Amino acid sequence: MAITKTICFANNKGGSGKSTTCANVGYALSTLGKKVLLIDGDMQMNLTLSFFDDERSLEFAKSDLNLYRGITEQKDLSDFIQHTDYKGLDLIPSSTLMSSIEFDLFTKWQREFILKKGLERIKATGKYDYILIDAPPTLGCWVMNIMCASDHLVIPVEASPWGLFGIANMFEFYEQIRQVAPTLNLLGIAVTKASERKNYFKQTIDTLSSLENVRLFSSIIRVDSMVEWSQDVSKPVMAYKKSSRAAQEYMELAKEIETYVNR
To answer: What whole-number distance in Å separates Cα of residue 143 and Cα of residue 8?
Structure first.
């Protein structure tokens, strides 16, 4: 039986490329023969929209078949899994109702472990090699839930003047989470939306490379219009145009993540 590894993609800075990275790394792993479950933990539903069109995504959001219902009703999340069009790749969709999740969790017993408990049966079956969770750009009880349910944390960072804003808060939050989830491992930082022609690209790399005891993935995701085109048709960029630079870079990042997870 496979041991399921759970990886969350989180950054309290919006626009860091979390959802896109989670979606494309998940798809890349599935093309490598891995069975992957994606979980959309963000009210913006970008991960869900990466695999389902607007109409289908809204159907999920308005129904009882979304993560919000599973969490607020503290159910086994097995019943909320949806199959995508891609072999070995499933998804638990989000809902716009996730905007109130902090309030809904406030009175729950052991509220920081509700997601972890909801995933127990799924992980026990060993059906999936990986569970990838897309976290919202906040640092609250819900993100604590996501991190407590995860084995590894990947922090996508946009290579822009504001990309590093709040990274210190992210590290501080991670250390706080480790007090209740000591096995959570900071797997590394993934640089996204990079343009080597910009001066701040080198500044971003130099700053992140100087951080002690923090891995910087060598696979850098550069700006590529194919990503936006693929999002417009609700497909991972590798499924939209396998030969694109972004597709190749996400594949390399997925391989790198898998290497470090299995060490």
So the answer is: 10
The pLDDT, as a whole number, for residue 196 is 82
Closest among 115, 56, 118 to 82, alpha carbons compared: 56
Residue whose structure tokens are 């504001």: 162
Paired strand residues for 41: none
Domain count, the chain: 1
Here the CATH number for the domain that contains residue 112 is 3.40.50.300
1 pLDDT tier (thresholds 50, 70, 90): low
Distance (Å, whole) CA 26 – CA 254: 8
Question: What average pLDDT does range 153-166 have in this prediction?
Answer: 89
Boundaries of domain holding 45: 5-261
pLDDT tens for 67-88 read: 999 999 999 999 999 999 999 9
